[in-house]
Design a protein that fits this description.
The structure holds two protein chains of two kinds. Chain A is built from nine helices and no strands. By secondary structure, chain A is an all-alpha fold. The relative contact order of chain A is 0.09. In chain B, strands 1-6-5-8-9 form a five-stranded antiparallel beta sheet. In chain B, strands 2-3-4-7 form a four-stranded antiparallel beta sheet. Classes of the chains: A mainly alpha, B alpha+beta. The interface between A and B is large, with 75 and 47 residues.
Chain lengths: 193, 228
């Protein structure tokens, strides 16, 4: 078992997915160990409750385990795909729990402060550095743009719901979403240059 | 696709990517997206911005029991799949497949001869007994002890990454899968444990897809008859 675990740890996410599709528990465990923390954090950020975040994360990973073949490498990284699965589950949870008001800020100052020491590998250090750059990119958004993105992505509201919440025309909401994403993208591109 | 059509749908692109289009708008947008290269290109450009969003949330430590619960469920799934695979189809039905039947008959004969040549005379009074024989490049050794036995193979070729070895036993005319899948080590040695050898007339090994199969899908790499 140990040999297989070591072997799985050397594989890239994209190489693990076919093994997960063939129901290899060790490959799945490695996938969870790599991304479970981010998944739980995202889930907690959306549902705002530890027990619910745990339930949502578990359901999301089990759905990945039972349908691993659905991952399409042409459409992005395994991590992005996994986190989108978690996000969708969390939003479904929110929608099923009527009356939940989403948080309206990005928590910029406290991002990634509470990682356990054993996770501080080189890869993790790089990810933390990258996360700091990402926070910077988002932090530069005008509040009106970050708010509509926040309500949509973390709150699960549609543009028409956001339009009602903020008392804005729908075209304005969609325009702010577009401008906000373009600005983040531009900052990321500058960071890479 | 004219310019004004693209412009109209393009306004929805960011909302679509953020999962914020109303349910009745999604299908229409996706139809447009399928045929609009400009929208596809814009989406590819903006995708990293959306992928950024989950990465900036405050990091929480996942509770350890989450991993434990998850892996317990995963292993239970595997156990259920294995138990469904165990009662395989009838041995005789499997033998009726022409190519497979011929191969097995030939190997059964070789197995009996191998046993006669290789048995070491043990096995009385519960002491370990060993059957060993050569089958082409393979050395096959079956060590029986108590109710079970261990099948040792040497000279096994390395498997493709998506393949494993699966052992099968024939008992009272029925083929059963041995639950533990196995693979050769870098020296071509492979072994698997068969916990219940009672009534087993034949042991066989096939190459199967990772995760195993509920019945043999290829010709056996070895077949050994077990004296009763």
């Amino acid at each position: 078992m140990a040999v297989r675990r070591e072997k799985a740890e050397r594989l890239a996410d994209e190489e693990l997915m076919p093994l997960v599709g063939r129901k290899d528990p060790e490959a799945f465990a490695v996938l969870y160990d790599r991304h479970g923390g981010a998944a739980y954090s995202l889930s907690y950020r959306i549902v705002g409750d530890r027990a619910a975040a745990e339930e949502v994360t578990q359901e999301a990973f089990i759905s990945v385990w039972r349908s691993g073949a659905r991952f399409d490498a042409a459409r992005g990284s395994v991590r992005s795909w996994l986190l989108s699965v978690v996000r969708n589950r969390a939003i479904d949870f929110l929608r099923s729990r009527a009356g939940k008001a989403p948080k309206l800020t990005f928590d910029d100052d406290s991002v990634l402060e509470q990682r356990p020491a054993e996770e501080r590998t080189d890869e993790e250090a790089l990810r933390r550095e990258t996360a700091a750059e990402l926070r910077g990119a988002i932090g530069k958004l005008p509040g009106e743009q970050s708010k509509v993105i926040e309500l949509a992505y973390f709150g699960g509201f549609s543009h028409s719901e956001i339009s009602r919440i903020l008392g804005l025309p729908m075209g304005t909401v969609k325009g702010r979403m577009r401008l906000g994403l373009e600005k983040i993208r531009g900052e990321l591109a500058e960071g890479l240059a | 696709m004219n310019v004004s059509d693209h412009k109209r749908w393009s306004e929805d692109l960011a909302a679509y990517m953020l999962g914020a289009l109303d349910a009745d708008e999604v299908a229409g947008f996706e139809r447009h997206l399928e045929g609009c290269e400009r929208c596809q290109e814009e989406m590819r450009w903006l995708e990293p911005a959306v992928a950024t969003l989950p990465e900036v949330v405050e990091r929480q430590e996942a509770p350890p029991q989450l991993r434990e619960t998850l892996m317990a469920e995963v292993r239970e799934d595997v156990r259920e799949a294995e138990s469904r695979a165990a009662p395989a189809r009838s041995w005789r039905q499997w033998l009726l497949k022409p190519a497979m039947g011929l191969a097995v008959v030939a190997l059964l004969v070789a197995g009996v001869v191998g046993y006669e040549v290789g048995k070491d005379g043990g096995g009385e009074g519960g002491a370990p007994s060993t059957i060993e024989r050569q089958e082409g490049p393979l050395t096959v050794k079956m060590v029986s002890e108590g109710d079970g036995g261990t099948l040792h193979l040497s000279g096994v070729e390395q498997l493709p990454p998506d393949k494993v070895l699966e052992a099968w036993v024939e008992r009272e005319g029925e083929v059963e899968a041995v639950p533990a899948l196995f693979v050769p080590d870098r020296n071509g040695q492979a072994e698997t444990r068969i916990t219940d050898m009672s009534g087993v007339a034949t042991v066989m090994v096939t190459e199967e897809p990772r995760g195993g199969s509920d019945q043999p899908t290829g010709e056996p790499i070895m077949t050994m008859s077990v004296p009763q």
